[in-house]
Design goal:
Alpha-Beta Plaits; 3 domains; six-stranded mixed sheet; 15 helices; about 25% strand
């Protein structure tokens, strides 16, 4: 089944609002094993909407069309649908009755504009809107079945969930040529997209039923695995085999799958280990603490930390010796080690992380240019481990990657357990 989405409205093509409906519907549809093939955004221009409807109908089996069903003069999507189908607009008695009932319950006089919401293309089916005024309108254009819903998210979701998706599900169940899908999103950090591609490339010919795809969501890179088969069991089996192979190749670079997020994964690891953490942040400005404390219950493992931005505060708050700063500067391996050890001693935690570096756009030295970051991991009863990172991009990107690089020191240590160096 080929499904396309058509979203209408000047507000969508001028940047006034962002289309949040389509991603929601895409996800719900994918749960049925159907991937949306195309999404079109069209402004409030009659010829453009009419042409878009004809184009979508020529390609798709099902189309969800949103927007332009309201009471105002720029709500003419259904008029364009009638023009595309070559039929007149007619007043639907049931839609008119629903409108009168709704306005009467709200003790509001029904206007001429509101009455327009009862007019639909001749031959179309109408379904009552449980949370709004404009009904769901269903019509055929060639081989394509079009569902017209309001663009207001609350109404869109109510009608899509209650009426559109069940009809699509029924059509799928009766289709003897149905193709079943299974999907997994493997999330990685610390590995570039090109390297991720290179590592899994040998797996592609070994798993012909699976499409390997990639997505960058900085600082993460994601591997998309989508299996297709004639039965759901076969698709699930093909996906499982590809996932096992991918995990073997990528190892601990994978931190989670599907809806898992990095900070909650870190929280689970720390909680499972019964460990506590403190932080000494300089160039990241508290970004690591912000990420970790976004997780409910983070107080069980996160004790506290310091944003020790200046040399004065590095000495006063996290105990960096003055001679270390004088000899090695604030951005150095020695300072990062002293920061981590100092904050761990002050907070009495199992682990401590420190970050110091040049986020830019100014600063840096010939030896340590902008983008250089030192991060150290101090642990109870273990030698302090420090890494130097050379990061690229603007200030925000350097800070973002500095935070994840520091957290990766800890995640890898937690995964390795007592065998870590």
């Amino acid at each position: 089944m080929r499904v396309e989405l058509l979203c209408t409205g000047d507000e969508l093509v001028t940047g006034l609002i962002t289309d949040t409906n389509s991603p929601w519907f895409e996800a719900r549809l994918f749960e049925l094993g159907v991937k949306v093939e195309r999404i079109l955004l069209v402004g409030d221009v009659r010829p453009d909407i009419t042409q878009a409807l004809l184009e979508v109908a020529s390609r798709a089996d099902v189309a969800l069309v949103s927007g332009g069903l309201g009471p105002t003069m720029d709500d003419f999507t259904l008029e364009c649908a009638a023009a595309a189908a070559g039929v007149p607009m007619v007043e639907d008695p049931r839609a008119l009755e629903w409108l009168r009932e709704r306005y009467a319950k709200r003790n509001v006089s029904i206007s001429a504009g509101a009455l327009r919401m009862a007019r639909v293309p001749q031959g179309a089916e109408v379904v009552r809107n449980p949370v709004g005024s404009a009904p769901l309108v269903i019509m055929r254009l060639g081989r394509c079945r079009l569902f017209f819903v309001p663009g207001v998210p609350r109404e869109y979701m109510a009608l899509a969930e209650g009426e559109v998706l069940p009809r699509i599900r029924a059509a799928l169940e009766s289709d003897p040529e149905r193709v079943y899908l299974a999907f997994r999103l493997l999330k990685t950090v610390g590995i570039a997209e090109s390297m991720l591609d290179a590592k899994v490339a040998p797996l592609v010919p070994q798993h012909p039923q699976v499409v390997f795809g990639f997505r960058t969501h900085a600082p993460e890179n994601h591997l998309k695995l989508m299996a297709t088969a004639s039965t759901q069991a076969e698709a699930n089996a093909a996906l499982a085999a590809a996932e096992v192979a991918s995990r073997q190749v990528l190892g601990t670079a994978i931190f989670g799958a599907d809806g898992e997020e990095y900070a909650p994964v870190m929280a689970k690891l720390l909680t499972r280990a019964g460990a506590t953490l403190s932080l000494a942040e300089s160039c990241t400005g508290g970004l690591i603490a912000q990420q970790l404390t976004s997780v409910a219950g983070s107080s069980t493992f996160f004790i506290g930390g310091a944003v020790s931005y200046s040399e004065k505060m590095k000495m006063a708050w996290v105990g960096v010796p003055a001679e270390v700063l004088a000899r090695h500067t604030a951005v150095s391996r020695e300072t990062a080690v002293a920061m981590a050890e100092g904050v761990r001693a002050a907070c009495g935690t199992t682990y401590a992380l420190s970050v110091t570096g040049y986020a830019g756009p100014t600063g840096g030295t010939p030896e340590d240019p902008v983008g250089t970051v030192y991060s150290a991991l101090a642990a109870e009863g273990r030698p302090t481990h420090c890494e130097r990172f050379s990061l690229t991009g603007d200030r925000d990107r350097v800070r973002l990657f500095a935070a994840i690089s520091a957290l990766e020191l800890l995640r890898q240590r937690l995964l390795a357990g007592s065998s870590a160096p």
